[in-house]
């Protein structure tokens, strides 16, 4: 009877060794995929890196010189410089000011939201200029843009669907 027990114990040890080996190989593979097989993994940009990248973007519209700010006003952004305007909880809007007119560069909805199409080809027609709407199943978020000292700012309004 002893050889049968010894054989069973040896099989259990071999099986456990194979299971641990498979686990190590699997975790190593997941780690390699998560960090990129040939290099560093993706990481989110810091706010400073986002600002630096936005500042490096070329302006697509000719800017006009901004008026000199008064001592109580914040310094004006360079004409045509795009900045991120949070539209929480609906998403984020990248906008710029051409003179004192806000222009939407892009709109990125948050998870679960969509950008509502205003029904115009250029998105800057009539009353929809400087306005972005995000829609979810429960909420409607409207970001109304304006220019303060040459910098876009957003007024966020949130409505619940009935």
What is the strand arrangement across the widest sheet? 4-5-6-7
Number of helices: 2
Whole-Å distance between the termini? 76 Å
Elements, N to C (H/E): HHEEEEEEE
Q: Overall mean pLDDT score?
A: 75
Q: How much strand content do the residues show?
A: 25-35%
Helix share of residues? 25-40%
Shape: elongated
Class by SSE composition: alpha+beta
Please mark out the parts with pLDDT under 50 across 5 or more consecutive residues, or reply none: 60-77, 119-127
Largest pleated sheet:
4 strands, antiparallel
Task: Indicate the topology.
Elements: H1 2-34, H2 47-56, E1 83-87, E2 91-98, E3 101-109, E4 114-115, E5 131-135, E6 139-148, E7 151-160
Antiparallel strand pairs: 1-2, 2-3, 4-5, 5-6, 6-7
